[in-house]
């Protein structure tokens, strides 16, 4: 993000542990409002991300699982002008110690995109959305420290 781009994110993170904490189901609900003044026009957008995943600790400190993400994009502020909805699915690996943790995930875009505006159709190929919207694959590394 540059000084012409501003974003406000809100997240709700839910987690349920099973089998003496060996299996974890987590769900993240995230929304963001964005403003970009870099171009000739001020661009305003709202995003909604729904992500859920299950992981299983298969040995001390190590867990593996799968994640599903559904991304919604809206033009303007609010949820009225829906542009598209894209789905991503893939594996993840998690390593945790008492003092820090790391999660690595790869999610492939599924061919289930749904578009709501004609200009979005121009960047859809094989049921997936590209252009400036999404790539075919997402790779994420998250690092955390408990406090």
Task: Give a description of the structure.
With 147 residues, the protein is mainly beta. The chain has one helix and ten strands, in the order βββββββαβββ. The strands form two sheets. Strands 1, 2, 3, 4, 5, 6, 7 and 10 form an eight-stranded antiparallel beta sheet that branches. It has a two-stranded antiparallel sheet with strand order 8-9. The longest helix is centred in the last third of the chain and has 4 residues. It is globular and about 55 Å long. The mean pLDDT is 92.
By secondary-structure content and strand pairing, the structural class works out as mainly beta
Task: Give the helix proportion (percent range).
Answer: under 10%
Chain-averaged pLDDT: 92
Number of strands: 10
Q: Count the DSSP helices.
A: 1
Measured between the Cα atoms of the first and last residue, the distance is: 27 Å
Morphology: globular
Assess the beta-strand content as a share of residues: over 45%
Topology pattern, helix = H, strand = E: EEEEEEEHEEE
Measured on Cα atoms, how large is the radius of gyration? 17 Å
Which stretches are low in confidence, meaning pLDDT under 50 for 5 or more residues running?
A: none
User: Mind describing the biggest β-sheet?
Assistant: 8 strands, antiparallel
């Amino acid at each position: 993000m540059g000084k012409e781009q501003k974003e406000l994110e809100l997240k709700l993170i839910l987690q349920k542990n099973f089998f003496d904490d060996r299996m974890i189901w987590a769900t993240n609900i995230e929304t963001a409002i964005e403003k970009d003044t870099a171009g000739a026009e001020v661009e305003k957008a709202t995003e909604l991300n729904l992500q859920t995943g299950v992981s299983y600790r298969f040995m001390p400190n190590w867990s593996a699982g799968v994640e599903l993400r559904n991304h919604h994009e809206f033009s303007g502020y609010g949820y009225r002008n829906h542009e598209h909805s894209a789905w991503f699915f893939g594996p993840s690996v998690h390593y945790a110690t008492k003092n820090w943790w790391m999660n690595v995930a790869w999610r492939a875009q599924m061919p289930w995109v749904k578009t709501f505006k004609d200009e979005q159709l121009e960047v859809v190929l094989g049921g997936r959305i590209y252009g400036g919207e999404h790539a075919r694959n997402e790779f994420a590394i998250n690092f955390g420290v408990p406090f």
